[in-house]
Amino acid sequence: MSLVDRLTTDMKQAMKAREKARLSVIRMIKTSLQNESIKLGKPLSEDEALAVLTRELKQRKDSLQEFKNAERQDLVDEVAVEIAIVQSYMPEQLSEQEVEALIDETISEVGAVSKADIGKVMKAVMPKAKGRADGSMINKIVREKLN
Length: 147
Description:
The protein has helices at 3-17, 20-40, 46-69, 73-87, 96-110, 118-128, 135-145. Helix 2 packs across helix 3, helix 3 runs antiparallel to helix 4 (73-87) and helix 6 packs across helix 7 (135-145). It starts with a helix and ends with a helix. It is globular, with a radius of gyration of 18 Å. The chain has 2 domains: 3-87, Hypothetical Protein Yqey, Chain: A, domain1 (Orthogonal Bundle), CATH 1.10.1510; 96-145, Orthogonal Bundle (Arc Repressor Mutant, subunit A), CATH 1.10.10.410. The chain has 7 helices and no strands. By secondary structure, it is mainly α. Pfam families: YqeY.
């Protein structure tokens, strides 16, 4: 089942169950997917849809941090629920050990030895971990390993 089909099915269930928050988030995701499809002028592939989901998740995490800094607990709670809903549509996330193994493998593939090679390693590892690991965590681990 494609992501769009799954979203449509879940949207119907959320309507029937009167789950306003879930329905709202699903509609936002579907709208983002449709806008991206229109922008590209073709139906989205699974990778392109995953990129849109990742972008939506990142926006919400950034908002969460801003709301925490502003001490707006009401908005923090609301965005935390949205994050959980968006994450339910993401592929299973890699553990930190799996990410480290992936980075070690990539470092040996590209022959990285110093901090100057961070860009090379990041460019090679990001497509492998696409949507399954947080970019900031990957960057932190790569920096530690190349120090």
